[in-house]
Amino acid sequence: MKPKIELLVNDKVYSGWLEASVTRSLDAIAGSFSLSATDRWAVDSKRWEIFPGDKCQLRIDSVAIVTGWVDRASPSYDADSHSISISGRDATGDLVDCSAVVKSNELRGLKLEQIVSELTNPFGLSVKSEVDTGEPFARFGIQPSETVFEAINRAAQQRFMVVTTDGEGSIIIANIGEKRATDSLIEGKNIKSAQAEYDFTRRFSEYKVIAQTHAVNDGWEDAVTSVTMTATDENVKRYRPKIIAGETSATLGSAQNRAELEAAQRAGKSTRVSVVVQGWKQSDGKLWEMNSMVPVLSPYLSQDGELLIARVQFGISDSSGMTTELGLSRPDAYLLGQLKGRKKKKGIGPDPWWCMR
Prior knowledge:
Helix 2 packs antiparallel against helix 3 (148-158). The protein is mainly beta and 357 residues long.
């Protein structure tokens, strides 16, 4: 059964879209959509009252996927028909575009969800945390000219978490990959097309984080000292060093975490897989969902294991019908929640055998 696509704008529902593309991604806090429709001229034809800046909600089978604002509207007509193309994003799209403006450029003693709320309150967005975000930040500096999303994403990464949207206009703080897809992706069965990219150009044999810290003596901060911590990637066989300037007021632990974070994320991001399946739903009737783990079996791509659904793009067109493109990644590209409890070591182990043969 074909899913029903509806766009609610100014309390009016618009449907009958001929082409559609809806994308949600862990790398973008805002989901996005583009829609188009064409109708034959009729005596009672009325202009669709949709304009940039209008509040909107995109629904698939009554489930809210994107709640935010219309970004662009492009109406057109000729002698036989009239058409309109609409695109928009979640309300969280403003966090991607706008600068972080706070009373103080350094926030002290706040938990992750409090930092996110502090930065997003001016935009009228609510924040929900699905997990315990850990200890408060002693200090969190807002860097000049960075966007709101860059700031909150940087804070979330330091807690090994991800900041996304629920599709209904709220910000969600969550762990990576705690959900599981119902279906597997299997070559020759439900995979319509697929491609992979294995890229070592941004991986290094050694990551050295150099930061400053303040020694404390009887409650008073003494002279600034230097902290240097190192993590290695044993899968990069040749000498490839990378020096990183760490956060100010770093501790030995935070500098080591930063080095391990850099090594793990770069290793994870060296593997990217894109899979296209027919339809928008899994066998249980649920839409494919980002931030879910999914088993992948594709001998040609050397894949036989679980990957993280980092991006979901629903599409409909005359040529392909209804398809879903899934952007898959190794979970350590985002530091899977389990990595927080892993045994500490100054490096990362071998790549999964099914990633690089």
